[in-house]
Amino acid sequence: MKFKTVFVCQQCGFESLKWAGKCPDCGAWNTLQEEVKAQENKKAPSRTRSFTDFSSEVVKLSESKASKEDRIPTHLAEFDRLLGGGLVKGQLTLLAGAPGIGKSTLMLQVAAELAKDKKVLYISGEESVGQISGRAQRLGIKGENIFLHCETDIQKIVESVENVNPDVLILDSIQTVYHPEFNSSAGTVAQVRECTSELVRLCKPKGMITFVLGHVTKDGELAGPKILEHMVDCVLYFDTEKDNVLRLLRPHKNRFGSTGEIGLFKMTSHGLVGLENASEYFAQTSRERAIKGRAYCLALEGSRPLLTEIQALVSPTRYPFPRRVATGVDLNRCLMLFAALEKHIGLALDNKDIFVSLAGGVKLKDPALDLAVCAAVISSCKDIAIPHDSVFMAEVGILGQVAKVPLLDRRLDEAQRLGFTRAFTAPVSKEEKTKIKQMNLAELLDLNDLSLRLK
Ligand SMILES: Nc1ncnc2c1ncn2[C@@H]1O[C@H](COP(=O)(O)OP(=O)(O)OP(=O)(O)O)[C@@H](O)[C@H]1O
Ligand SMILES: [Mg+2]
Ligand SMILES: [Zn+2]
């Protein structure tokens, strides 16, 4: 067999005979890696073979039978919620996240739940049987119906699946498996692509639920080709820094549900525990007292309102350039808001350091946080405490105008449930007002209104 060396972009799969710093196809830098390829028409699996195993006759859609979309719940409430109610037969899910964030832990917990009435095959290319069973012991999982197999050769994995014939397959992780007919090392584009299509061929006709774990690079991107995300039905990402106990699972793609939902978990020694009452977790300081520099907001994550607490500290600077630090919220957005506050209400911020932080250790992008950031900054700058029963929910524009945010009624319902009585928002239409009871609304047109009301 003859071999040739090619350079393959690890992001898009582009092949080139020469190395280049920048991929000519997708424009990414430093993604071209040397791979050795068998040159001629050896029986290396051809790419075109890919999805033929569930190819069909030509049929009329009206006469075709829908594959039954019965959801299979995992009984982990947070996980089911973000899957859109549960798993679907033959679903191929990719779970990606930073090292040590809890991917294997979550999968073992899901396996334990599914194993109550299904056969689960857990294949690991990263840990030994002893290590996995050690984790299972710690999590309190007996694992009657869970079969373990430590293997990295995809052909042996396929054999093992044929032998065990499981209902659920878990592969930890796609970057460690390899196809022996390809000469490149595990984790490269060619390997990841070929091993994944092998799994697609395997799981679709059998209706086997398959989970594939994946690594991410230090920028938080999935390691390996983007094409991987197209091949699977569902991509889930673990968010948040791993030194935080909070774990946030976000769907990046979901063929059977919305991608707006998130799953919130707490890492404990007994595994990941769903945080159903997340609001109480995020708001950290005692709500009994009014505090200077703190403003509450009900931010939306997916369709779920979360009580969040914005903390701001505005203090005289000792540096030639005042410092601007934002944690958990977008710094550029904050800089825009600071400029709007200076321009429109004359807040003197030019010789002050400003620190803004979203309590709870998550990053949120909801524009509704704008008003809370402004309120917290005004509060800290002018030394005015914001009453503890107030929430702030509106977008603030560069002209200082206050704008409406979506799903206000749902946010207000949650605020009410949590005992807030006063809400600062953009003007609300009459129609919407009928839905809002018991909440004292302060409708603001612009930042001036806000500043006048915070006295
Ligand atoms: N005894 C323990 N108590 C609390 N948390 C623990 C304990 N042991 C492990 N953990 C948590 O579990 C995490 C490791 O989980 P897990 O092995 O599932 O991660 P992973 O995402 O699979 O990592 P990798 O990418 O290395 O496979 C640790 O970072 C730690 O937070
Ligand atoms: Mg792991
Ligand atoms: Zn590329």
Order of strands, widest sheet: 6-5-7-8-4-9-10-11-12
The assigned CATH architecture of the largest domain is 3-Layer(aba) Sandwich
Overall tally of domains: 3
Beta fraction of the residues? 25-35%
Going by helix content, strand content and strand pairing, the class is alpha/beta
Gyration radius (Cα, Å) is 26 Å
**Secondary structure: number of strands:** 23
Tell me about the largest β-sheet. Answer: 9 strands, mixed
Question: What coarse outline follows from CA principal-axis ratios?
Answer: globular
Q: What is the average of the pLDDT values?
A: 86
What are the segments in which pLDDT stays under 50 over at least 5 consecutive residues? 41-52
CATH topology of the largest domain, what is it called? Answer: Rossmann fold
Question: How would you portray this structure in words?
Answer:
With 455 residues, this protein is α/β, with parallel strands linked by helices. It folds into 3 domains: 1-41; 72-276, Rossmann fold; 281-453, Ribosomal Protein S5, domain 2. It has 12 helices and 23 strands. It has helices at residues 77-83, 103-114, 129-139, 154-164, 189-206, 227-231, 278-282, 331-345, 369-382, 408-417, 430-433, 447-453; strands spanning 3-9, 15-16, 32-38, 92-97, 120-124, 146-150, 168-172, 209-215, 234-239, 246-254, 263-268, 271-274, 291-292, 294-301, 304-316, 324-327, 352-358, 385-386, 390-393, 395-396, 402-403, 422-425, 440-443. The protein has a 9-stranded mixed sheet, sandwiched between helices. The radius of gyration is 26 Å and the shape is globular. It starts with a strand and ends with a helix. Mean pLDDT is 86; it is low at 41-52. It binds adenosine-5'-triphosphate, magnesium ion and zinc ion (ZN). Adenosine-5'-triphosphate (ATP) binds next to helix 2 and strand 11.
